[in-house]
Every structure is written in structure tokens, then in C-alpha cells.
Amino acid sequence: MPNTHPCKLVVIVTEAAIEDELAADVMRLGAHGYTTMDVRGQGSHGPRSGLWGADRSIRMEILCDATTSLAITTHVEKAYFKNFAMVLFVADVGVLRPDKFVHHG
Predict the structure, then answer these.
(1) Integer Cα distance of 101 and 89 in angstroms
(2) Which CATH architecture has domain 5-96?
(3) Which helix (H) or strand (E) covers residue 93, if one does?
(4) Predicted confidence (pLDDT) per residue in 30-55, tens digit
(5) How far is CA 103 from the centre of its chain?
(6) Average pLDDT of 10-19?
């Protein structure tokens, strides 16, 4: 679509227990905001039904510029991958109202 602007979508699926710490990190690293939702699924760590607190998973989505995306993914990999069930991926997306998601120099 010609009226969209390039942006990165960082998606983190992880244990709900670290949501607050992860959210603070994401904001400190330059995100303008994030969206979090409760999710269920199954992967290499087995099913995560979310029926009890320690089994809950979240999906956090962050729209940001490439620099912020790199800062977030680098930090999350170093700080969380070793000790928490986590999937992280980045996609190129087009957004309207880019001023809500990216820093302007």
C-alpha cells in the first residue's frame, strides 16, 4: 500500500511470569509502546495451556524502527533465552501513522 511506511514488528512469545520485566526492558530500549496478550500453544517445551499461573504464556508485539528492533532482540537473546521458554521473531511491516512507532532524527 502506497500510504504505509516501513517498520519492524518484533514478536516475543514467552512465559507470563516475566511480562513486567520484559515490558520495562522494551520501553527502556526505545520502544514507543507494546501490545501484550495471553496465548496458548505447544512447542519444544510441550503444551502450554495457560490453566495455571506458572503455565501461562504471553505474546508481546512491538512496532519500532530497525535500530530499536536490533537493541530489543540483542538484549532479549542475552538476558532471557538461556533461562526462559521463548520464541522471538522480527518481520518487516508497513504502518500508517509512523510517528507512533519510530524515532525521528
Answers:
(1) 18
(2) 2-Layer Sandwich (3.30)
(3) strand 86-95
(4) 999 999 999 988 766 665 555 555 67
(5) 18
(6) 96
